[in-house]
Amino acid sequence: MIHAYILIQTEVGKAAVVAQQISGIAGVTSSEDVTGPYDVIVRAEASSVDELGKLVVAKVQSVSGITRTLTCPVVNL
């Protein structure tokens, strides 16, 4: 299983709505609106890197109000 954090920037005033919409996507384990350079931080899981990519591109990035994402896969060193 691949786990990742997805850092999201949104349009002004859209963070709470974006976090709520993303929380209903299969593969998303948590979605929270935060302060700082990013507006929403999502924890997600997928069976492979390819599936993670599909989750981010096809599902997460299609949510209205998102302007930019940065996906950070979790590594176990």
Overview of the structural elements:
The chain has helices at residues 15-23, 49-60; strands at 2-10, 28-33, 40-46, 66-73. The protein has 77 residues and is α+β, with helices and mostly antiparallel strands. The two termini are 15 Å apart.
Which terms summarize this structure?
about 80 residues; 4-stranded antiparallel beta sheet; alpha+beta; 2 helices
Task: Give a summary of the structure in a few sentences.
This protein is α+β, with helices and mostly antiparallel strands.
Report the uncertain regions.
none
Radius of gyration, whole Å: 12 Å
Helical/strand content category: alpha+beta
- Fraction in helix: 25-40%
What about the largest sheet? 4 strands, antiparallel
The overall pLDDT, averaged over residues, is: 96
User: Shape from CA axes?
Assistant: globular
Task: Please provide the ordered H/E string of secondary-structure elements.
Answer: EHEEHE
Sheet with the most strands: spatial strand order: 2-3-1-4
Q: What portion of residues belong to β-strands?
A: 35-45%
The number of E-state strands comes to: 4
Q: Tell me the number of helical segments per DSSP (H or I, 4 or more residues long).
A: 2
Distance between the termini: 15 Å
